[in-house]
Amino acid sequence: MLAAAAELLDGEDLDSATDAALATQLRGLWVAICRLQAQLSRRVAVFDERGAAARDGARGIRGWLRHRLRLDAVEAGRQATVAAALVTRPAAAAAYLRGEISAEHLAAIDEAGWLLGDDAMDRGVERILLQHARREPPGRLRRLSRRFRERGGPQEAVDAFRRVRAHRFLDVVRAGTGAVNIRGQLDVSDGELLLAALRAVRSIPPARGPDAAPGSLPPPETGTPELSVPDGAEAPERARADALVALCRAVLRTNPAEAGRGLGDRARVVVTVPLETLRASPTGDALLGSGEPVPAAVARRLACDARVLPAVLGGAGEVLDIGAETETVTQGLRRAVELRDRGCRFPGCDLVAAECEAHHLVHWAQGGQSIVDNVALLCPYHHGLVHEGGWQITRDPYTGTVRARRPDGTRLDTVSPPPE
């Protein structure tokens, strides 16, 4: 039906159309586009609610949209946000489904909800914003929301500040030009701190060298996130936790000679695990250095890229014999794999190499070798998906193609080797 309508429009002679006719068509087409967009949002919301993205190997709906619909990171995030607003803002969602407002209008009204709070929205603010949305662009809705916030009392101002702070984020995106675009949001106090720091930096005399003329580069464009809020950014506390873990991982991988205080290039998470457990026993005890138990699958994941210290323990846990510490993935092997893979090799994931872990396709405890052909980079999420989620990945040693299979054995898309 949609294809037939598009073909019908393709056949129209626009050169003979009057200005008035074109204006009428433009308005009608825009309403139709908004309604179609709303139907897309409905389906995104249902797909997300079912957890279908995770079953397809994606971290969340944003990652699925990027991979399956070929959207950039910002657009995928916008689609996910608008889909979620269909549930939280039913009145605005109904107008969106009728084509009375656009997806961006709905996003602006949803932003007002977390800026002003549900109580304010229920007291009539949402109704007022919706009235304005039917005749004004989204930017004016956002300005109107800020004015509503300024009119509130002291407690309302504090509540608004906390809601804004809970939605702070940072995206660092590499554009097609090679430039890095930064997008984020801070609360007013942290934002002022950033502005003060920028003013201080600007006061330092610039280094000598030619300055690029303003506007010499093309406009910023979106692309692959180098460091971004993970999927599930609708839960800011989870995004912050993941960011903190990524920061710790980066620090603990620092070369001791560069760090100056011997931090080492692997996280010193100590796990004591029987050899039989590493050899894919479905059960078995593994203990962290703190004494807390961890599942066998987690122990195998941690042992994929670790320093191994073989030891013989007595019945009471005393050390009877101890061997030499070895690395399952040496620095040289890691660099070689990074040069080949460039990032996570799981289909649909493009997390950069610096944030990935080395995975033994055949675990070394099962006889797998620590060589380039038996090691692949996986991001922490997909590394966990393989070890704890029952997924399997294989790599063709001749073509470099990586294949992933779900726990039920069905195959996910293949991924060819990175471009030269």
Task: For the record, give the distance between the C-alpha atoms at the N and C termini, rounded to a whole number.
Answer: 42 Å
Mean of residue pLDDT values? 75
* Number of continuous helical runs: 17
Number of strands: 14
Taking all Cα atoms into account, the compactness measure Rg is 27 Å
Low-confidence stretches: 201-234, 255-267
With strands numbered from the N-terminus, the spatial order across the biggest sheet is: 2-1-3
How many strands, what sense, and barrel or not for the largest sheet? 3 strands, antiparallel
Shape, per Cα inertia axes: elongated
Helix content: 40-55%
Strand content: 5-15%
Which class best fits the helix and strand makeup?
Answer: mainly alpha
Family: Belongs to the Rv1128c/1148c/1588c/1702c/1945/3466 family.
Protein name: HNH endonuclease
Keywords: Endonuclease, Hydrolase, Nuclease
Pfam families: DUF222, HNH
Task: Explain how this protein is built.
Among the domains are: 23-166, no CATH class; 271-405, no CATH class. 48% of the residues lie in helices and 12% in strands. The chain has 17 helices and 14 strands. α4 (61-68) packs across α5 and α5 (73-88) crosses α7 (103-116). Keywords: Endonuclease, Hydrolase, Nuclease.
Short structural summary:
This protein has 420 residues and is mostly helical. Helices cover 48% and strands 12% of the residues.
Write the layout of secondary structure elements.
Elements: H1 2-10, H2 19-49, H3 52-55, H4 61-68, H5 73-88, H6 90-97, H7 103-116, H8 118-133, H9 138-151, H10 154-166, E1 169-174, E2 180-185, H11 188-202, E3 224-227, H12 236-252, H13 256-259, E4 271-272, H14 275-278, E5 286-288, E6 293-294, H15 296-304, E7 307-308, E8 311-313, E9 319-322, E10 326-327, H16 331-341, E11 357-360, E12 375-378, H17 380-387, E13 392-395, E14 402-405
Antiparallel strand pairs: 1-2, 1-3, 4-5, 5-6, 7-10, 8-9, 11-12, 13-14
Helix pairs in contact: 2-5, 4-5, 5-6, 5-7, 7-8, 7-9, 8-9
